Amino acid sequence: MTPQPSPRTRTHLPKRTVSIIGTGSYLPERILTNAELEKMVETNDEWITSRTGIRERRIAAPGETTSDMAANAARAAMEDAGINGDEIDLIILATITPDHFMPSTACLVQTKIGAMKAACFDISAACSGFLYAIEIAQQFITTRTYNTILVIGVDKLSSIVDWKDRNTCVLFGDGAGAAILRHRAQGHGVIATRMGSNGNLADLLAVPGGGSACPITPENVGESLNCIKMEGRETFKHAVTNMVESARQVLDDAGLTGADLACVIPHQANLRIVSAVADRLGVPLDRVMVNLDRFGNTSAAAVAIALDEANRTGRMKVGDYVLLVVFGGGMTWASSVVQW
Fold it and tell me: Is residue 188 annotated as part of the catalytic site, yes or no?
């Protein structure tokens, strides 16, 4: 018998359409409002709202882990897609707040959702992680390595926030979002993706301590080095510039303009960033999905949660063009155009 070529060598086969066949999300029950933050740190509702657009955020319950939130979002996506755990070939989980350094959080989710046939790994690209994971999943499906992939963006940022730093603690929340990707013959799907990074800007948004470069020791434990540190003005400037450039590039790759988009789903970090990006792309705000006022910045989960909400509230219909665009620490950024 003649040996069959491996999936990666079947270059003569037509390219597969990679579709998002289901979405899901999970937000913790506890709501932390701006009014409550006023009692914790020197700030006020007007200051937070006017500068960020955030009014409240969700905070994980005591003992509620990143993998718990991820598993809840995964179950919702599986239900939306009409699949069970045995059908999942691969789990890619994007996070900067894993349950542990080892094992991967994806492996913990695997057990919780009963996807025991799946390979599993985590990636770290901060707020850009979900779109990075979507592109990785697309490559595995396109090359026929896997058929059905679960992608999760999840972060428990309350575990790495310095609640005494008013410039950062007001921004972040906890949550998870997920999507099921699969080849769907004659279906719509991911049309084009652009990803980028600039490590020269790594210090603008980082968690400086807790890794091998700066372990937490008895001597530095009081310095909150394992918490988020951010240079706000510089981060804002680079976020807008790179999100706009990335979005324009991916729209050009897809042969589209802002006028062709039914919905733009940006990273939910700051309303002024969202507004600036929409304005430069020529997209009216009523076609931009915004939920940061209710959930704050949930890092890798933010665009995934917004995608699920847009899906479930009918913001997109079959055949619509959707732009997803993100920016995060690293610095990292990415954009994807999807035909729904």
Answer: no
Task: Give yes or no: 127 in active site.
Answer: yes
Q: How far is CA 177 from the centre of its chain?
A: 7
- The residue annotated as part of the active site, out of 72, 107, 120, 127, is 127
- pLDDT 10s digits, 294-323: 999 999 999 999 999 999 999 999 999 999
Catalytic residue among 226, 267, 270, 311: 267
226, 242, 270, 297: the catalytic one is 297
Domains by residue range for the chain, with CATH: 7-183 (3.40.47.10), 190-339 (3.40.47.10)
Question: Residues 218-275: pLDDT tens digits?
Answer: 999 888 888 899 898 899 999 999 999 999 999 999 999 999 999 999 999 999 999 9
Whether the full predicted model's pTM is greater than 0.85, yes or no, is yes
